[in-house]
Design goal:
Blueprint: H1 22-41, H2 51-69, E1 78-79, E2 85-86, H3 94-101, H4 103-107, H5 115-137, H6 139-144, H7 147-158, H8 168-173
Length: 174
């Protein structure tokens, strides 16, 4: 009788062990992303239909939800079999990252939004990109030391409808 064993994982890939509290942290991030997307969808529309208005009303909120729902600490920075660093994505694909990166450029054309709304949108893109980078760089520290939780709190604060606006002297300078 011959026994054939199924192949195990390749030598360069170690099995992933979730961190304590990881499911809760990821659920919290996904919920914060859904709330941020709802806030973005609630922003005023431009006076006339425009590609930027559609992008802000449809594409950006969808990307925010996808990014926060797809976070995966197992996709962190690691060494490849050849000894080269493989940069992790924390589950956020390149297209999603690219969309978040163009937010500052798109906002220059969103002149119907207030300076406060511009700053909040910048904060949303920055925080989500930051969460992904934290999880890709050092998922254990990001999860166990509450860094992701603090970033989610920042995201919630930036998109809270009752957050007071900028001081008039600051808004005037923007």
């Amino acid at each position: 009788m011959t026994i054939a064993y199924l192949p195990g994982p390749p030598d360069d890939v170690s099995p992933y062990e979730p961190w304590a509290g990881e499911p809760e942290v990821l659920a919290e991030a996904a919920a914060a992303g859904r709330r941020a997307a709802a806030w973005i969808r609630s922003l005023p529309s431009p006076p006339a239909p425009s590609p930027v208005g559609t992008w802000l009303a449809v594409t950006l909120p969808d990307v925010v939800e996808v990014a926060t729902a797809s976070l995966d600490p197992a996709q962190c920075d690691r060494m490849g079999p050849d000894g080269r660093l493989i940069e992790g994505t924390a589950g956020v694909d390149a297209g999603t990252t690219s969309t978040l990166a163009v937010v500052p450029c798109v906002l220059s054309e969103a002149d119907w939004l207030t300076a406060d709304q511009h700053l909040r949108l910048l904060a949303v893109a920055s925080v989500i990109t930051g969460i992904a980078r934290l999880l890709a760089d050092d998922p254990g520290t990001a999860i166990l030391h509450g860094q992701v939780t603090r970033m989610c709190a920042t995201l919630d604060h930036a998109t809270r409808p009752d957050t007071p606006g900028l001081a008039p002297e600051i808004e005037h300078t923007l």
